[in-house]
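Q: What does the predicted 3D structure of 2-hydroxy-palmitic acid dioxygenase Mpo1p look like?
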Amino acid sequence: MGGLFDLESHLVFYRSYHFNHTNVTIHLICIPIILLSAIALLLPYQLGNVSPYLNLGVLLAIGYSTFYTLLDFKLGSITVPILVGASYFLSQTYIWAGTSGVEFTKDQFTKYALVAHTSAWLAQFYGHGVHEKRAPALLDNLLQAIVLAPFFVVFEVAFALGFRRTLKKNMDNRAGKIVRDLKFKEAEKRRAKQI
């Protein structure tokens, strides 16, 4: 695998766990839910008393979008206003939920975020178990899978819109070979057990 900023190697790693169309679709829906709900769950943890908008959720959004911009300036730059804007909106909603006279409480906000987060994870495990028939990437590399997953979604949308076709072709070819080799090894193990 390439270095920290080797975008194609990161995408190949993630693609090699996501070849089934249904599983990819589940991930395209669930990964943004997981990231946004994670941001929401981190909002109560403020970094000092300077501002309610200076919290771990906003810091996570800034961190992700900064890393993505370093990996690929064009598509990474798109994530900055999306993630930072979403973290600001979620922070605003969380602050609003705590005001008097509002029936929507901070506890309810956190419970909804937790339900969304958990449901999206369960849906992804379903996609891997039933459709992909392969364990998720996070079992092999937790950090890479969790950090790269949202950017993989950005690239899947870009590919669907016709952008970065050469990168998509290279990624799919390299990942396809990994999946082919894995299936061959699994078939060999099954044959060995039968003997």
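A (community wiki): The structure tokens above were generated from the sequence. The chain has a mean pLDDT of 92. The helical segments are 7-15, 21-42, 56-71, 73-97, 106-132, 142-160, 165-194.
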